[in-house]
Amino acid sequence: MLNVMEEKGYIERVSNKSDRRVVYVKLTKEGEEFLKDQNRKFENFTCQVIEKMGEEDTDNLIRLFGKLYDVIEELQSEK
């Protein structure tokens, strides 16, 4: 996955000068722009979905996601 992102110019790998085993992954300007664009697209799509669902269904979905989150938290705390 990182190789593909690097080929597209979204990231660059930077070696640690004091420890050559360590490689940092840095987001490039192109990567930042791509990420911003994807976030905008996701936000627009989410707004379209909410608009189609309507207020009542959206409220129910939010309530159910909240309940799901609570159940997951409860199950994880039992481990």
UniProtKB/TrEMBL annotation:
Key words of the record: DNA-binding, Transcription, Transcription regulation
Protein name according to UniProt: HTH marR-type domain-containing protein
Gene3D superfamilies tied to this protein: Winged helix-like DNA-binding domain superfamily/Winged helix DNA-binding domain
GO molecular function, one term: DNA binding
Organism field: bioreactor metagenome
HTH marR-type domain location: 1-70
